Amino acid sequence: MAADWKEAAINEMQTMTSKANISRYIANVIIGLHSAAVIVYVIDVLVFRTSNYNVDGIETSVREFTLKLQLPFECNESPLYEVIMLLEFLHQLVASATNGVLNCLIITLILHISGQIEILCNALRDISLGKNNQEELILSIKALISKHQKIIVFSGSIEQIFCYIALIQVLSSTLVICCLGFMIVTVNNYSLKLKKKNN
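Request: output the structure for the sequence above.
Response:
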């Protein structure tokens, strides 16, 4: 991409700049939406998800975390709860921003390649204009063929990057599904043991 920007002619800069502006706008929207989703979720957990339970006739409120976790110490007390919530918030914000950045990377690369294809099409359309002799025409056709080969190589690189990103997302989703399944099984077993114990 950097080489395309360095080698760009003046008439190509407008197309490349417009694609870069679109890419920046889309990236800001995607990362902003990912961050807003995390912020809204954390606010929802902090404001609306407080439950009460009875311990020896005393009603005690339990504050939930954004991520369901069990810690080996009491974490509902004031300074410790806020520290854990802050760490969970930062973790979720970084994870969602990383996901957004990976999506923005693909969008940016695709917009760049579409700009290069548009520049190539414009050059092909204007190839016969202003070329009086055969040598100039042959040189410009060779330059266009070279540019087309660069576009093909760059498209292959985008495909490889996309494959790795898709693999990472599939593996992380599989891990999350397995962990959720484990939680469902262990919670069901725990509730069955409690029912048997109470009967």
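The radius of gyration is 28 Å.
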